[in-house]
Amino acid sequence: MSILSNSVYNNMAINEIIERFLQRRLSRTIYIKYNYVIMSKNNPSEYFSITNYPEEWAKIYTSNDYQYIDPVIITALKEILPFSWDHNIKDNLNLNSFNIFSLSKNYEIEHGYTFVIHDHKNNLVSLSMSVNKNNVGIFEDYIKTNKEKIQMLLTTLHHKITCLYIENNNNQTIKHRLI
């Protein structure tokens, strides 16, 4: 598990609560790799992620600021509905730049499904999920059966993290006023 933050979402205790919440609610029938992201649309360098993608991939992704060129993120910025993706998504966007999938396939991240929210603070919020190629059929059935539930999970998850950070900030403000 990796929690990566270059944003205001930097309280590890809160982030671990969110991580456990997410883990408890995803499929128990197949191993799903996921990446929960909050990214400022005004400043994409403000990027927050809770992921169980391989740690090496998560570090490569964030240290190279791949959120600027990731076709999944670029698509999510334009969508309000969940969407499936694979290496062909780059072609659909007419991107001639670096092919991120040539690297991500080394970590068995080649196809998946992304759920999207555009929140009131102008953030892109997404939950991307993928499985290894041996479980694609089961995964597609899981998505088809649970699409609405997963979208609601993302909405609930984002509400939960937002409330926890507001509560934490209010408590910090109150503590500072008492000093």
From TrEMBL:
The keyword Transcription applies. It comes from the Bacteria. Keywords: DNA-binding, Transcription, Transcription regulation. Residues 36-160 form the Transcription factor LuxR-like autoinducer-binding domain. The keyword Lipoprotein does not apply. SUPFAM superfamilies: Pheromone-binding domain of LuxR-like quorum-sensing transcription factors. InterPro entries: TF_LuxR_autoind-bd_dom, TF_LuxR_autoind-bd_dom_sf. One of its GO terms (molecular function) is DNA binding. Pfam families: Autoind_bind (PF03472). This is Autoinducer binding domain-containing protein.
